[in-house]
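Tutorial, part two.
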Amino acid sequence: MKPFEITESKSALKNYAIAHTIEGRDGYDERSFFLMERYEVRSGKIITANQAFHSNPMVNLKGSDIDELYSEMAHVISGKITKFRRTGSNWYLRSVVKLENHMVEYKPLKGNSYIPLPAALVGKRAIINMKNETDNECFKWAVTRALNPKDKNTQRIDNNLRERANDLNWNGIEFPVSLASIGKFEKQKETISVNVLGYERNVIHPLRISDYDRQNEVNLLLIAQGENQHYCLIKDISRLLCNQTTTGHRKRYYCLRCLNGFDSVDSLNRHKEYCQKHNPVKVVLPEESTTIKFRNHARSMRVPFVIYADFEAFTELLDTCQPNPDYSYVNQYQKHTPCSFCYLIKSIDDNIYPPNLKTYVASLKKKTLRRYFSTGLKTT
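Running the prediction step on this input gives:
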C-alpha cells in the first residue's frame, strides 16, 4: 500500500507557523477533518457537510510523551464529533477529507534578570521586586522571600536569604525558569504552590494558576521590558487589584483564576467550587453603551424547538412583627403571589409539530382582587 504523504500546505511569519496536510483515503477514519453525511427523511435527499473538527493546542517538548499527546487530542475530537451528531439525526461519517497539523515554535515565558517596576505599580506597595542584578534567578529569590518574609529591605538578596534558598530543592530546575517548569518545582516541594500573574498594557491577568491548594501559596507577577522578563513577589493581592476591579479601597478577597473580588472568605470559597473547574481567564466586560452584533447568520445553527415563557405575579403587602434591633434581620414587607403564566413551544416546521400554546390564570376571590387594586399594587 502506498504510504501517506505529508506535504507543507501553509506557512506564515517566515515559517514561524507551519501547517502540514495528509490527504484522506478510503477505509480510514483518522480523527480530524471529516465528510459527514445524513439522510433527510422527508425529502429523501442525502445531505453532506464538510465539517472541521480540531483538537486543543498542545505543547510538545523534548520530554513529552507523543502517544499521550495524540490520545488526548483524539479524545477531544471524538467528543466534538459526538456533539455534532446530536445537532441533527442520521449524521454519520462518510470519509476523511484531510488531516492538517499546525505547528508553531514554542517560546515559553521565562523570568530573566532584574527589571524596575512600572510606575503604575510602584505606588501600590503590593509588590516586592527582588534585586537580582547579577543573575537570572529571580524566581528563586521571589519564592524564597515569600517563605521568609521580613519587614525592612525586603528586596535585598542578603546572605540569610541565600542560606534559606539552599534549603529548597532546585535539582533539575533550569534558570531562567519558564512557566512550564514551575510544575516540576511544585512536584519537588509538595508544601508549595505557585501562581503567576502577568502585566501588560496596565492590565493584570492570570498566566499560570496552580492546581494545588497547599500550605504555602506563592503569588508572583511576571513583568517584561523588551525581551527581558522578571518575576516579582506579590505581597498583597488586594492592593494590587483594587483599582482594576473596584472603585473602593476596602480589603477584598480575590480568585486568581478569574480575578473577581469578594467581600468575605466564605464568598470566595463558594465561588472557587465552580471556578476551579475552568481554565484561568480574566473576565473583561464590554464598555458601557457598546454593542456586539452577529453578522454571519448563514453560519448559525437552527435548533428544532424554541420555548417562550412568561410568568406574572401580584405583590402583596405583609403584616409582620417588629424585628429585634439587637439582632440582624431581613425586613420582609411584601411577597409575590403567582397569578398566571403562559408558554409557547415553537418548532422549525409547523407541519411536523404545530405551535403549542398553554396559558393559566389563577382564580382569585373578588375580595382579594379588590384589595390589590385599591392599594394601587401592580403586577410584575
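The CA atoms of residues 344 and 375 lie 33 Å apart. In part three we will examine how such features are distributed along the chain.
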